Amino acid sequence: MKIEIRNLNMIYSNGNHALKDIDLEIGTGMFGLLGPNGAGKSSLMRILVTLMKPTSGVVLADGRDIQTIRKEYRSLLGYLPQDFRFFTSLKTWEFLDYSGSLAGLRNRKLRIAEVDRLLDQVGLLEVRDRQANRLSGGMKRRLGIAQALIGNPGIIVVDEPTTGLDPDERIRFRNILSELSQNDVTIILSTHIVGDISSTCQTMTLLNRGEVVFSGSPENLVKKAEGHVFRLTLSQQEYDMAKEKYNVISTIPVDGGWEVQIVSDDPPPFSHTAIIPNIEHSYVYYMEHKLKAELT
Ligand code: ADP
Question: What are the residues whose beta carbons fall under 8 Å from the beta carbon of 175, sequence distance 6 or more?
Answer without folding.
Answer: none
